[in-house]
Amino acid sequence: MLKSVLFTLLCCMSLSAQAVVILQYHHVAEDTPKVTSVTPAQLSQQMAYLHDNDFKVIPLSEVVESIKQGKALPPKTVAITFDDGYKSIAENAQPILSQYGFPYTIFISVEPIERHFHSIMDWQTLNRLVEGGAELANHSWGHEHLIRVLDGETEEQWLARIEKNLLSTEAAIKKQTGQNHKMLAYPYGEYNVKLEALLQKHGFVGFGQQSGAAGPYSSLTALPRFPVAGAYANFSSLKVKINSLNMPVLEMSPLNTQLAMGEWRPEMKVKLDMSDINASEVTCYILGQAVKPTWISADEFSVQADKDLPAGRSRYNCTARSKSKGQYYWYSQAWVRTKDDGSWIKE
Ligand SMILES: [Zn+2]
């Protein structure tokens, strides 16, 4: 008994200090869609902030290894990621990042490269960035909605198709660049329990697009990232995110992000390590509204939408101020659902 109490104390005193904030970018340009872009001036401001405030920017593969091995991450650790491999990364982001010596990871899909899409970097450019210290990782073959079962496809056929998709993407990246990190950023941030199990089977880790600080309490197949673009690039709120902590989630349910037909108001239950959190400080946000959680016990709460989540992707976000540090613990749960007739929204 004493041993387990001691373990809990030691475990959580050290773990609560650990968090890594993973930033997710797409375009760095003036003339690309605002909702997925920051300007070069914004990126410069953000990188200067990290540098001037002694944040440690480390490669994403190192973040994964530390979490996997339960190794301590230094406080104020950040990782930088770009999705899709747009040319503006080589043209505008790389010069800013190299000024500070910051490493970064680009999640790429193979098909747009092979088909020479106008806005996408070619293998030669990607290899040049790798020589400068960039990491390349998996963003699926053709940027598919990976959880969508096609018409006439059985679930087994779907899973086999996705398995082949992810493994051939990984093999192509390795062949063209020598990079092989087994890190997948889910296109559109969409995943479900079966896809997560597939990643686990192959030793892959998965990154979503739900916000939150990553760390020892995160699932390795649903690692959070803070999207930085459009309204989410607002500098003062971004600073709060960059300083956020890994919410000490001990248990949560339901585990499947993909909602069952008709169950469009998931009741999320979360059990926390409360050693650095006051229950009254926990606030959740659902469909743009602040929601006070219902406490089931001293360390477990539930929250639920009071209307149906819309077809497509939604999130429940929960934050809590740290008692000792004044920063915010930040946790987000992704949900995804079909339309009422079982079909998916077009995008
Ligand atoms: Zn993408």
Notes on the protein architecture:
It is a single chain. This protein has 347 residues and is an alpha/beta fold. The protein has 9 helices and 19 strands. The strands form 5 sheets. Strands 1, 4, 5, 6, 7 and 10 form a 6-stranded parallel sheet that branches. A 5-stranded mixed sheet has the order 11-19-18-14-15, with no helix packed on it. Strands 12-13-17-16 form a 4-stranded antiparallel sheet, with no helix packed on it. The N terminus is likely disordered. Zinc ion (ZN) binds next to loops.
N- to C-terminal distance: 54 Å
Order of helices and strands: HEEEHEHEHEHHEHEHEEHEEEEEEEEE
Tally of separate helices: 9
Helix/sheet category: alpha/beta
What does the overall shape look like? Answer: globular
Number of strands: 19
Which percent bin holds the helix content?
25-40%
Q: Which parts are unreliable, with pLDDT below 50 for 5 consecutive residues or more?
A: 1-14
At a glance:
With 347 residues, this protein is α/β, with parallel strands linked by helices. It has helices at residues 2-15, 40-52, 60-69, 87-100, 110-114, 123-131, 155-177, 193-201, 235-242; strands spanning 20-25, 27-28, 37-38, 56-57, 77-83, 105-108, 135-138, 183-185, 205-207, 226-227, 245-246, 249-253, 267-272, 283-286, 289-291, 294-297, 300-304, 312-321, 328-337. The strands form 5 sheets. Strands 1, 4, 5, 6, 7 and 10 form a 6-stranded parallel sheet that branches. The chain has a 5-stranded mixed sheet with strand order 11-19-18-14-15, with no helix packed on it.
